[in-house]
């Protein structure tokens, strides 16, 4: 469903109209498609992946994002989340998880094995307990398939100590739908980027740029290895992405979307990708 070309209304209105149509049919997305929503959550990550019969959430934004994330899911007719991934425990990734867990049943929760003690993580743990859920702290790479979409999750072998340990513990998630490939790089900083470059298999069509668009000395090598057609950056006005990051991506011919300008929607039919953006 090419939102922009066939709908003729602003992207958000088209997404809502599609949602209402699908809601009536009981499907979360058109059969055979994968819709990825990169929500405008400020300098924070909150992503929803929908197929006809599945809903997956990667990170949940700040605490204040929880209700908006739940509203988005309910608006799209989601009554169960098949998988929730918490890439790491910084408040801009785990913050909204307690609201999500309280509002909707979640079949499986996968999290970084590098524990962190902060208020948002404690609230997340309480919400898990309230729901009787045991999260799976990933110690090694894992792959799973959900409604025809392949998820390959890469874990770090770095130690859970040091200045950037939390960011560098980010689960990195490769998503493949037919021929289209997405790479969600969490908040990976230099050491994790080095690890990912050694691991390989970074080529993708859509890159969720690591760490809100912060520049690292390995950024250039990483972007070249990924060579994405599209990139999504989750920065905000106060903490914008680095100009150098934009410059490198532009030199690779990558089209960049900033979630601070509005929710970004990407629709895959397994072969081609269609992007649209809501106004902020
Ligand atoms: Zn972050």
Automatic annotation (TrEMBL):
InterPro entries: ComA-like_MBL, Competence_DNA_uptake, Metallo-B-lactamas, RibonucZ/Hydroxyglut_hydro. Residues 43-236 form the Metallo-beta-lactamase domain. The keyword Signal applies. Pfam families: Lactamase_B. SUPFAM superfamilies: Metallo-hydrolase/oxidoreductase. Residues 1-29 form the signal peptide. Keywords: Signal. This is MBL fold metallo-hydrolase.
């Amino acid at each position: 469903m090419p939102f922009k070309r066939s709908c003729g209304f602003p992207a958000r209105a088209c997404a809502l109209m599609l949602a209402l149509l699908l809601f009536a049919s009981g499907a979360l997305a058109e059969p055979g498609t994968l819709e990825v929503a990169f929500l405008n959550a400020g300098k924070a990550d909150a992503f929803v992946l929908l197929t006809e019969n599945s809903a997956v959430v990667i990170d949940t934004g700040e605490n204040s994002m929880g209700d908006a994330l739940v509203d988005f899911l309910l608006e799209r007719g989601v009554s169960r989340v098949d998988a929730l991934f918490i890439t790491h425990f910084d408040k801009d990734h785990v913050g909204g998880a307690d609201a999500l867990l309280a509002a909707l049943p979640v079949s499986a929760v996968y999290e970084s094995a590098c524990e962190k003690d902060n208020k948002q993580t404690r609230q997340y743990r309480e919400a898990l307990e309230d729901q009787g859920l045991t999260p799976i702290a990933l110690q090694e790479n894992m792959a799973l398939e959900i409604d025809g979409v392949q998820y390959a999750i890469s874990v770090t072998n770095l130690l859970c100590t040091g200045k950037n340990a939390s960011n560098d513990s980010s689960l990195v998630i490769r998503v493949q739908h037919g021929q289209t490939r997405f790479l969600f790089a969490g908040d990976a900083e230099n050491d994790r980027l080095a690890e990912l470059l050694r691991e390989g298999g970074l080529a993708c069509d859509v890159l969720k740029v690591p760490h809100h668009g912060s520049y690292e000395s390995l950024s250039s090598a990483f972007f070249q290895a990924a060579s994405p057609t599209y990139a999504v950056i989750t920065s905000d006005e106060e903490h914008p992405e680095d100009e150098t990051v934009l410059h490198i991506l532009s030199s690779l011919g990558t089209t960049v979307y900033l979630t601070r300008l509005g929710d970004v929607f990407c629709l895959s039919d397994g072969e081609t990708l269609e992007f649209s953006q809501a106004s902020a």
